């Protein structure tokens, strides 16, 4: 059975091309739910609703999770609440790398 840690691991390989950092460290992934042994639901956001790379990021997130053994259904849900805030949602490493204090 797939674990939340495995899902986070593959999602850490999905990068926002404009920022050059992965969506996990950016804090764009809000929730991961493993509904059954075959279905993974991911609630995530983008840095802005008008993000031009949004469709690409969502597609890459879907493809990454779909590679996990046993996963047959992947739902990538874009959510806008709460709004993404880099000061509170990014990892400390990401804040340092991007100069956000």
Structural summary, described in words:
- The protein has about 100 residues and is α+β, with helices and mostly antiparallel strands.
- About 30% of the residues lie in helices and about 20% in strands.
- It has four helices and five strands; from the N terminus they run H-E-E-E-E-H-E-H-H.
- The strands form two sheets. A three-stranded mixed β-sheet has the order 3-4-5, covered by helices on one side. The protein has a two-stranded antiparallel sheet with strand order 1-2.
- The longest helix is centred in the middle third of the chain and has 13 residues.
- The radius of gyration is 13 Å and the shape is globular.
Question: Helix share of residues?
Answer: 25-40%
The first-level CATH class name: Alpha Beta
Percent of sequence in beta strands: 15-25%
Largest sheet: 3 strands, mixed
Give a quick precis of the structure.
This protein has 101 residues and is an alpha+beta fold.
Keywords for this entry:
alpha+beta; 3-stranded mixed beta sheet; 101 residues; GMP Synthetase, Chain A, domain 3; 32% helix; single chain; two-stranded antiparallel ribbon
What is the element layout, followed by pairings?
Blueprint: H1 4-11, E1 15-16, E2 21-22, E3 29-34, E4 39-44, H2 54-66, E5 73-78, H3 86-89, H4 92-98
Parallel strand pairs: 4-5
Antiparallel strand pairs: 1-2, 3-4
């Amino acid at each position: 059975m797939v674990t939340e840690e495995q899902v986070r691991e593959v999602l850490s390989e999905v990068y926002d091309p404009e920022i050059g950092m992965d969506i996990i460290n950016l804090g764009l992934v809000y929730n991961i739910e493993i509904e059954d042994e075959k279905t993974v639901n991911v609630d995530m956001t983008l840095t802005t609703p008008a993000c031009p790379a949004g469709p690409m990021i969502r597609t890459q997130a879907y493809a990454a999770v779909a590679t996990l053994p046993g996963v047959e259904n992947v739902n990538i849900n874009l959510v806008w609440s709460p709004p993404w805030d880099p000061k509170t949602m990014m990892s400390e490493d990401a804040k340092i790398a991007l100069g956000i204090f």
